[in-house]
Amino acid sequence: MPTHLIESLDSQPCQKCQGGRKHLQTVTLMTWLGDDLITVPDFPAWICDLCGHRLYDSEALAQLSLLLNPDAGTPIHPRVQHLPKKPPANINPPA
Ligand SMILES: [Zn+2]
User: Counting CB atoms within 10 angstroms of each CB, which of 1, 18, 62, 91 has the fewest?
Assistant: First the structure.
């Protein structure tokens, strides 16, 4: 592995303030999953040491979305399903 790339792996120039550098840190990610607010501890994020701009690691975000989506990775089979019809509602309950 080329060693000259190591520095750029844990710090990046900040695109927000153009002056700071972003460092890879772990934060607690909070996100909505449907109606539920979930928190993900120790989530990798790039944080600017000057303006504090936060950018979540894109690879980790992609993995997280896979984890949170129960359908992810599931092969889709076209399935013919005969839904049971609702029973007739005109049956009177015994008095
Ligand atoms: Zn910045």
Answer: 1
Cα(21) to centroid(ligand 1), Å: 6
Ligand 1 centre to CA of 58 (Å) is 18
- Domain boundaries, given as residue ranges, for the chain: 3-68
Report the CATH number of the 3-68 domain.
3.10.20.860
The sign of the torsion formed by the CA atoms of 34, 39, 41, 42 equals positive
Radius of gyration of the chain (CA): 24
Q: What is the pLDDT of residues 50-59, one digit of tens each?
A: 999 999 999 9
- Ligand 1: centre distance to CA 60 (Å): 21
Please answer whether residues 21 and 9 qualify as being in contact, where contact means their C-beta atoms are separated by less than 8 angstroms: no
